[in-house]
Amino acid sequence: MVHLSSFLLKKYHSGYVVIRLAMAGHKQANRPFYRIVAAYNKRSRDGKYIEQLGTFDPLPNIYNEKLVSFNFDRIKYWIGCGAHPSKPVAKLLGLSGFFPLHPMTVTEAERRRAQAKLAETTAGTEDSQEEENRAGV
Question: Which of 32, 103, 124, 132 is deepest in the core (most CB within 10 A)?
Answer without folding.
Answer: 32
